[in-house]
Amino acid sequence: MFQINCLNPISKIGLANFTENYQIVDDVNNADGILVRSAAMHDMDLPKSLLAVARAGAGVNNIPLDKCAEKGVVVFNTPGANANGVKELVIAGMLLAARDIVGGIKWVEENKDDENVAKTAEKAKSKFAGTEIKGKKLGVIGLGAIGAQVANAAVSLGMEVYGYDPYLSVNAAWNISRAVKHVFNVDDIFTDCDYITVHVPLLDNTKNTISKEAIEKMKDGVVIINYSRDLLADEAAVLEGLKSGKIRKYISDFANPTTAGQPGCIVMPHLGASTEESEDNCAVMAVEQMMDYLENGNIKNSVNYPACDMGICNKAGRVAIFHKNIANMITKFTACFGDEGINITDMMNKSRGEVAYTMMDLEAPATAEMIAKLEAIDGVFRVRVVK
Description:
- The chain is an alpha/beta fold.
- The protein has a seven-stranded parallel sheet, with helices on both faces.
- The protein folds into three domains: 1-81 and 276-300, NAD(P)-binding Rossmann-like Domain (Rossmann fold, 3-Layer(aba) Sandwich); 83-267, NAD(P)-binding Rossmann-like Domain (Rossmann fold, 3-Layer(aba) Sandwich); 313-387, 2-Layer Sandwich (Alpha-Beta Plaits), CATH 3.30.70.260.
- The protein is 32% helix and 21% strand.
- The longest helix has 21 residues, at 276-296.
């Protein structure tokens, strides 16, 4: 029986997908799998029993990816499961920036005791007037699951949409409206667009995508929307842009001391995927990926190991090996089985950066001695008997 620990509350609809071979436990020390949303794991002592971590969401900066990779722990995320929820909030963010909706609502609340509030409102409403988003230029940086949906929705609302993504996949491209203009230089987004929204993961090379230099290139009165990660924007530079009038509004989903309560900032408490549907979808996807890995060794949507799928094992045994991506490893693995007279009926080897994953189906179950030989090979992180 596999033991699963939840570091955060996880949707019951997702957990319901676990079969009787799984048990939800409070003690992480003997867990085979961990389900997590936002809990910080960098300072955790990972138990030796741990095989997989599934993030019910997209961002994984709360998980020590390299540390997990070196221990042969596969980390999954759920890209696209919360895309619609984030897309809808991005559209709401643009509307909040275009018109002072929040200010208007506050005015009505403050004047609720005025018997003539209806008449007074007609005089006051000009203070909250704004613009429409139809016909405005929207720049979408990152055209993955969320960015593509934002771009398509904006096209439907009559916006002129420009998309930038140097890593755009063929599958993602098929899901993007033909009306979206694909640009090959992010500076074109900065210089031409009235609204700019960022939908990329937080990596070393994406940190401060919205930099002081980028802001200087933007139109006066630009609106910046950041529903991905706060560190994708140099928020000190954003505040300077707001003071100077270069930036009209900054919409963020990440409350922090830098932007909270600042003039021109509309900051939300990480509501992007906080819908029942998003949480359910993320949990279902996380559970299904974890089950397929624990039961079959298959890897899908991992952020620290390559994708690998050999289906359900119908042979006597299946072994998975986590190792460095260096030469001659496969030769050493196959020699171990050859020395024992065990035939390998199927095999798959995939790599990702400095790590690799090899899965082998066998005509006979792997013995403890054979596993020990594999573990002793220099460059092997972990050997797992799947079946």
